[in-house]
Write a structure and sequence with these properties.
The chain is of the alpha+beta class. It is 35% helix and 21% strand. It is built from 14 helices and 16 strands. The strands form three sheets. It has an eight-stranded mixed beta sheet with strand order 1-5-6-11-10-9-7-8, with helices on both faces. Strand 3 and strand 4 form a beta hairpin. The protein is elongated and about 95 Å long. The structure holds one RNA strand of 76 nucleotides.
Length: 403
RNA sequence: GUGGACGUAGUUCAGUUGGUAGAGCACCUGUUUGUGGCACAGGUUGUCGCGGGUUCGAGCCCCGUCGUCCACCCCA
């Protein structure tokens, strides 16, 4: 038997239904906010992710499915969705149009990680990207949209927000932080020492108790924002307050991908183990420029579909469609014209084997059919079918033509 | 990449100091030769993850390998 590769999963039956339910619900809401579908390739030039996600992230430095294709190109399976969407946006020259563009997407992402609960090597994200809107109102709207999606799916969450500043206030802050970190370097954990070089902001996020105790006195970016960033962040918190969306300002919240600035947020669940982030996103005003487009502000997010799957309750399925069966071999082929006609309007299950009455009843119950339609010897002779509504329990025998 | 736990029927799991594999659920059949969900009775189901080793004998012990899970790391 050939097994799926490590960290890759087949979705069948209940899981498959749940997946579709999540995606269709998210799409329904996204459309209401003016998003339209975009599909981008799974395979992209490696350079795309190096330039957007950034070398400092583990995603790029060690988790990509990267290889040389037959044409000698350095390519990668996409580890996340935003880079491809931005690339497509620039490639279609949408950055030269004054219209604001909003896209939603969903599909597989690939990261070569050690699998664990809520962390697969091939996983699926639903995401949205909004281009051309610099206003913090859009950040607020996107957060509102995600909470609406989660509400619709019946998922509880905690929202954490932070501001990562902009090119005006972030670099000087980073410098003072690095200086501070170098002083306490010897007491920080091994990982943090590495982070000072690669991505010092991440040190703030370290889960090591000793590191955290040393960082209590570190200056926070949130207190060192430039005027523009500061007023926007205050606006955002006020908008969320007024909308009744509860959140926590987490000054240690850093997005893992390099392209984020200003608003950063994460939706977290405490019910799914250590991989608790169920959605994450923020503003990335410099990314379009980074990928050779005209400067275009943008905000976006992604939801981890597998991570929310165990949190979502499927709405109860009601009885639907028709179960067709024959109780004598001669009647089996009479079922097909009926099935074809009825399939124009509803779901039809046809049992090809002639079998006993009770078996058919059980079979109909199992596929959750609303109606059982059977042809036995009597019905065959009289050109009728026997019909029972499994909900109201009413039954009747009618001419095939009228049914 | 690091540390730890685990892998037995479709599924959830039991399996004693090594002696040729079991339960619930599910499934099939019957009780009811034409009335589903319930009940009762009977029945089917296994490369014990895979490969090697120790042993008269391995589900159990040893080594390897693949996979799953948990934590770190990372992130959705």
């Amino acid at each position: 038997m050939i097994h799926p590769l490590r960290g890759m999963k087949d979705l069948t039956f209940e899981d498959g239904k749940l997946f579709v339910h999540i995606v269709t619900t998210a799409i329904k809401i996204a459309k209401r906010y003016g998003y339209s579908y975009i599909e981008t390739p799974i395979l992209e030039a490696t350079a795309l992710f190096k330039r957007s996600v950034g070398d400092s992230s583990d995603i790029v430095s060690k988790e990509m499915y990267r290889f040389e294709d037959k044409g000698g190109n350095d390519v990668c399976m996409r580890p996340e969705g935003t880079a491809g969407v931005v690339r497509a946006f620039v490639h279609a020259k949408l950055d030269r149009q004054p219209i604001k563009q909003k896209f939603y997407y969903y599909g597989p992402m690939f990261r070569y990680e050690r699998p664990q609960k809520g962390r697969l090597r091939e996983f699926h994200q639903f995401g949205c990207e909004s281009f051309g809107e610099a206003s913090v109102y859009e950040d607020f709207t996107i957060i509102t949209m995600i909470s609406q999606i989660f509400h619709e799916l019946g998922i509880g969450f905690n929202l954490q927000i932070n501001s990562l500043g902009c090119p005006t206030c972030m670099p000087p802050y980073k410098e003072t932080l690095v200086n501070f970190l170098i002083e306490i370097k010897n007491d920080l954990c091994e990982d943090c020492n590495r982070r000072i070089e690669t991505n010092p902001i991440r040190v703030l996020d370290c889960k090591n108790q000793i590191c955290q105790s040393l960082l209590v006195n570190s200056t926070k970016l949130i207190n060192n924002l430039c005027e523009g960033c500061d007023t926007d962040f205050k606006k955002l918190t006020k908008l969320l307050d007024n909308a009744g969306i509860t959140y926590k300002v987490d000054t240690n919240l850093v997005r893992g991908l390099d392209y984020y600035n200003k608003t950063a947020f994460e939706f977290v669940s405490n019910k799914i183990g250590s991989q608790s982030a169920i959605a994450g996103g923020g503003r990335y005003d410099k990314l379009v420029e980074f990928l050779d487009g005209k400067p275009t502000p943008a905000v976006g997010f992604a939801i981890g579909i597998e991570r929310i799957m165990e949190l979502v309750q499927m709405p109860e399925a009601s009885r639907e469609g028709i179960y067709l069966g024959a109780m004598t071999e001669d009647a089996v082929e009479k079922l097909f014209p009926i099935a074809t006609a009825k399939r124009k309007e509803t779901k039809v299950t046809v049992e090809y084997n002639a079998k006993g009455f009770k078996s058919h009843m059980k079979g109909a119950d199992k596929v959750n059919a609303r109606y059982v339609v059977l042809i036995g010897e009597d019905e065959l002779k009289s050109g009728r079918v026997w019909v029972k509504d499994l909900e109201s329990k009413e039954e009747k025998t009618v001419k095939v033509e009228v049914f």
